[in-house]
Amino acid sequence: MGLTALLAVIQSVLLWQAHAGIKRVIYLQVSDDEITRGVERITRTGPLMDLAGYLFLGTGIAFIIWLYRARENTEIFKPRFAGSYQGGYNSGSGAHRHAKGWAVGGWFCPIVQFWYPLQVVQDVVSASEPSSEPGAAKSGGIKALLSAWWASWTVFWVLLTVGGSFAGISFIVWMVRLVDAAEAADNGGSVDIYDLQTFMIRVALGVDIGFTVAAVALIVAAVTIAVLMLRVGSWQQATADALIPQPAQASSPLGRPQTASYPPPGPQDSVLPEPPQYAPRQLPGFTTQPPPKTFPSYSSPQQPDDLKPRPPTASV
Question: What is the rounded CA–CA span in Å between residue 4 and residue 9?
Fold first, then answer.
């Protein structure tokens, strides 16, 4: 939209720069070389006109796609209003006045194209209003944006279609009158060509003024609808975020989300840790007294009684 409006401004400036040259051509105040250079200049501006047409067409297609998707989103956010259209509109509920297909067809259907697109956008704005901002879609700022956008777009469209048709018809009429004047001059009659020249000068001036007003209207329409698109997009994004469930987080005893804390990596991370040391554990039936340093000698007389040899006993 910004590029399209900028290109319209450039075209308007070029038209006003060429106005003086057009007057000289109409009044036959130029030489053949100047006419040739003028034709070449017009030929070079042809690709610019083509670029403006392609850019305008691409902008329109992109906007219609956005409007259709925004209309679909409202059916997910407020499904109870999805089937309320064609007479079931309630300005306080945000229901749609027209079916979803009119988001596209309303721009091309004759006659209704002057109010159906406005109603579709109004309904999308109303249905996109988030629950956290009640009444935002009915605020004065939103209404002013909608009114300014549709008024400027209507002015641009009327000037582009009606004004362009009027300029084309006027040129055809001028050519017919010029041919009649040439035939009258061949037959020896008197011809007042000044009226034809004045008529064509006025047509050229009307084209310049009309195109300049159309460029200003296009700029206003582009700015206002861009602000509306950003507002609707932010509302729908907020509603979508509220509908998507968030993953549960572990809470600390104080009620705050508990997050794992890890020390920052450092040089110690590259050193292997030492193995753990365990203290000895006493097992049942064993003592922890240290073993004797020397063992008793069986040849010494100080042997315990249980180790001394015993006399043999007679068995009965």
Answer: 9
